[in-house]
Amino acid sequence: MIILDGKKTSNDIKDEIAKEVDVLLLNGGKKPHLAAILVGDNGASETYVSAKVKACNRVGFNSTLIRLPENVSEEQLIEEISVINQNDDIDGLIVQLPLPNHIDEKKIVNTIEVNKDVDGFHPMNIGNMTLNLPSFIPATPAGIIELLDRYSIDTVGKSCVVIGRSHIVGLPISILMSRNNYPGNSTVTLVHSRSKNIKDICRNADILIVALGKANFVTSDMVKEGVCVIDVGITRIPSDTTKSGWRLVGDVDFQQVSKKSSYITPVPGGVGPMTIAMLLKNTLLASKSKI
Predict the structure, then answer these.
(1) Which of 8, 95, 128, 209 would be 133's cystine partner, CB 3.0–4.6 Å?
(2) What pTM does this model have?
(3) How far is CA 236 from CA 167, 268, 275, 276, in A?
(4) Co-location of 162 and 260 in the same domain
């Protein structure tokens, strides 16, 4: 069993990006600039955004963090986005999700300039990705593809089962794994809450990608020997062994499933770090597209 080390791989990618930034500056270019909008004081969102700002500093990007109160109106948020859309110095913009219930997330995503949508959530980016045209690929699916590529995992003709159909992970990765590319060319099955015989479907998977958000959902009796497991989930559960009183687990029972796996991502330290690395890669791409 081989651990797919997202932390190490993401650090390798950050080093590569930092070198590209150095070359850009030597050639008279400017530093890539990522802006993030954070609404409210959600603890998880605060942690994610702080990690993104820290990553920008590491690779030599400029970063701007705009904090807005929980009760900000949808109109005010759209105005902030419009200002950034028109700012030529800013290459990429992310609006940290989730947003408060009174704000329409789809409307907000559609407001972001397509060429600055480094999260890859805009319908035009999703459409171009589906057609295998140049686009910003959503960061988490892009991170999964990058892991498979860098570990040279065979995907051609393999049975790939994706659990979860979110617009952020499940749907995009199902499209990417079926495209006529490497990694890709897999036979993809997408299962969800209404699917029947999920265990039987999962047992046939050569590659199992789980993005459900339910702790330890996948157990050892759901996978076959030699499966490659990509665990996207991350959930806090109570723990008596940590100072915080909780620990992080994925959607996969790692202790048991890893015994049957050829490759598996840990939680934490698997897909999570890759998401941030690919966000930086998209921002660099956005910056270079202006040259």
Answers:
(1) 128
(2) 0.94
(3) 23, 11, 19, 20
(4) yes
